[in-house]
Design a protein that fits this description.
The chain has a single domain, classed as 2-Layer Sandwich (Alpha-Beta Plaits), CATH 3.30.70.330. The protein contains 2 helices and 6 strands; from the N terminus they run E-H-E-E-H-E-E-E. The strands form 2 sheets. The protein has a 4-stranded antiparallel β-sheet.
């Protein structure tokens, strides 16, 4: 039973982000689980404000699994909504 992943990257959706968080802080927080290939916070292009969610992409399955299996994530006093973001599955 092996999954056919086009790229060796594993993507998480991260919601309920504090408005003060940038991609840099997101990367720093999730790097405790392993190598973060990319971390980005989604911003409203017109207003320039955070939409309070983003995405983290891990290059290693183990790091992805560790982060997605952790029950609770806290960042700046907020509980994050972390879910696997399955693309093309």
């Amino acid at each position: 039973m092996s999954s056919n992943v086009a790229r060796n990257s594993y993507k998480l959706f991260v919601g309920n982000l504090p408005w003060t968080i940038s991609g840099k802080e997101l990367r720093t927080y999730f790097s405790r689980f392993g190598h973060v290939a990319n971390a980005e916070v989604v911003f409203d292009k017109q207003m320039g404000l955070s939409k309070y969610y983003g995405f983290v992409i891990f290059s290693q399955r183990d790091a992805y699994n560790s982060a997605s299996n952790q029950n609770t994530h806290f960042l700046e006093g907020r509980v994050l909504n972390v879910q696997r973001a399955n693309e093309n599955t």
